[in-house]
């Protein structure tokens, strides 16, 4: 089955054509347009601006993704997200499904992030493979979904039976990255900026100075699958406030090095909490695989530490390719093909939809 999928929950306008491939999904075309530069100067997303940009981009993006393909159904993310942005995708999908007389499928955007792990990439390699093995995750799996608005641990017993098992009690991990970046004077979106700054610190420099940059790891010794990130961000704010005293005592650390070192410790603190809680979930639920998903899954430290821990536990670890970690429509198509939910033609966006 070939699916046109549309994604417009926040500041990305995306469309993709995908199809079933073995137990996974193959991407035929995937197009993403972002209005992120327009939000940079405000240090965050301005919903009105995002929605207006969605309207401008949606038709060119869908046209480019379709590229003459014949599709069997239309899928769209209907929440969670910003109402104005969601409306653009949902109304476009409804019109296309109605005009083309194709089924309309509704997709939970957070579930779609998880289903990005079923995207079988490197088409070339797979086509040449004798076994046609698509290497999709084995279930039951524990999923860690980390994005700008959500941080959830879920237990996936089958493609459709998911249970929420834990998450953050305050800021989402991505939100903490964005806020910490703002405090450090780095542009929006902060996650990639902090990641980049953190990776500029050499191991030698880190070993020398790490004791000067200790941030808390809230709830890390708590046995519940509950997380908290607002305290780490507040501690970054205190470090920055005390910067002049710090410089007097450590004149050899330049302003840029200071920022990079804080970024490294911040990435490390957030990753340690996320990894610890995921490993607690692994002990408790004994899954066959662990899946990482959402925009923060692009974080180098997090991907590496989790991969190592999961390998040591003898389980398989899955994380989408970088281009399918952030918002995109290929993941929406993957979700619609593998856990289809047909919708009536009067579909309405649901801005506060939960992952399960
Ligand atoms: P999403 O909500 O899934 O679109 O993801 C967006 C969030 O992911 C934003 O909060 C970004 O700051 C965050 N993000 C993107 N790339 C990275 C990265 N490399 N490290 C940490 N956070 C990131
Ligand atoms: Mg997202």
Describe it:
- There is one protein chain.
- The protein is α/β, with parallel strands linked by helices and 356 residues long.
- The chain folds into two domains: 2-122 and 324-343, ATPase, nucleotide binding domain (Nucleotidyltransferase, domain 5, 2-Layer Sandwich), CATH 3.30.420; 126-320, Nucleotidyltransferase, domain 5 (2-Layer Sandwich).
- The protein has 13 helices and eleven strands.
- It has helices spanning 36-40, 47-66, 83-100, 109-115, 123-128, 173-183, 190-198, 203-209, 230-241, 243-249, 255-285, 300-312, 330-338, and strands spanning 2-7, 12-21, 24-34, 73-79, 104-108, 141-146, 151-156, 162-168, 226-227, 289-293, 316-318.
- The strands form two sheets. Strands 9-8-7-6-10-11 form a six-stranded mixed sheet, with helices on both faces. A five-stranded mixed sheet has the order 3-2-1-4-5, with helices on both faces.
- Helix 4 packs across helix 13 and helix 9 packs antiparallel against helix 11 (255-285).
- 49% of the residues are buried.
- Bound molecules: adenosine monophosphate and magnesium ion.
- Adenosine monophosphate binds next to helix 6 and helix 7.
């Amino acid at each position: 089955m070939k699916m046109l999928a549309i994604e417009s929950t926040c500041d990305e306008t995306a469309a993709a054509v995908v199809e079933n491939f073995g137990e996974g999904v193959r991407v035929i075309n995937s197009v993403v347009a972002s209005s992120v530069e327009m939000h940079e100067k405000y240090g965050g997303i301005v919903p009105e601006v995002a929605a207006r940009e969605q309207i401008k981009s949606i038709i060119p993006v869908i046209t480019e993704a379709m590229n003459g393909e014949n599709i069997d159904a239309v899928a769209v993310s209907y929440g969670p997200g910003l109402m104005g942005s969601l409306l653009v995708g949902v109304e476009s999908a409804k019109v296309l499904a109605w005009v083309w007389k194709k089924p309309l499928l509704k997709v939970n955007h957070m579930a779609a992030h998880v289903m990005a792990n079923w995207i079988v990439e490197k088409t070339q390699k797979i086509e040449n493979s004798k076994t046609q093995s698509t290497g999709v995750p084995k279930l039951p799996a524990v999923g860690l979904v980390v994005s700008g608005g959500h941080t959830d641990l879920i237990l996936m017993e089958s493609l459709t039976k998911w249970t929420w098992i834990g998450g953050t009690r305050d800021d989402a991990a991505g939100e903490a990255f964005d806020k910490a970046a703002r405090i450090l004077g780095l542009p929006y979106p902060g996650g990639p900026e902090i990641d980049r700054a953190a990776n500029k610190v050499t191991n030698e420099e880190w070993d020398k100075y790490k004791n000067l940059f200790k941030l808390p790891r809230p709830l890390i010794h708590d046995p519940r699958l509950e997380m908290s990130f607002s305290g780490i961000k507040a501690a970054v704010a205190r470090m920055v406030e005390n910067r002049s005293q710090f410089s007097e005592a450590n004149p050899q650390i330049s302003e840029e090095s200071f920022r990079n070192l804080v970024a490294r410790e911040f990435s490390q603190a957030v990753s340690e909490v996320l990894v610890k809680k995921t490993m607690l979930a692994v002990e408790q639920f004994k899954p066959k695989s662990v899946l990482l998903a959402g925009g923060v899954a692009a974080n180098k430290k997090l991907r590496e530490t989790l991969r190592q821990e999961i390998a040591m536990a003898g389980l398989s670890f899955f994380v989408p390719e970088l281009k399918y970690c952030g918002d995109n429509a290929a993941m929406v198509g993957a979700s619609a093909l593998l856990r289809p939910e047909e919708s009536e033609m009067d579909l309405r966006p649901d801005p506060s939809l939960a992952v399960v």
